[in-house]
């Protein structure tokens, strides 16, 4: 659908999103920040976005982080460690009230983990854990070990993991319910 007209892509999303478990986008057919935010708030399950440039589209990262999706995967060339730090700071300050349970960002640059975690009160852990989604998403539970826990003032806990790979750095953020 990367080459289809925006009007067709929007109509397809409008029809298919409510009845599918996962929505995968290779382009963003929306022309304004407001239109994108409305879509992000309407998606309730699993959304993956693989595109070349948010910046070309004049969208702010916040538009993606107001998502009502339980799981959000972003793979985009302009994502950076700064995007991750901004998201984490906002989450800790309780600025994102979404039901987001798992965020994955894949960025092209390597990440200085200690610098990124500075000031977040992150506590390292090494034991194995299994993350389960609160709703059925047709995704198996994810078992992992290693990472860092952070906690909001209201007590809500999240775990941050990093993985270096051939596509860049994978950042995973899990919110424990």
UniProtKB/TrEMBL annotation:
It comes from the Eukaryota. PANTHER family: CYCLIN-RELATED F-BOX FAMILY, F-BOX ASSOCIATED DOMAIN-CONTAINING PROTEIN-RELATED. Residues 38-104 form the Sdz-33 F-box domain. This is Sdz-33 F-box domain-containing protein. Signal peptide: none annotated. It comes from Caenorhabditis remanei (Caenorhabditis vulgaris). InterPro entries: F-box_Sdz-33, Zygotic_Embryogenesis-Asso.
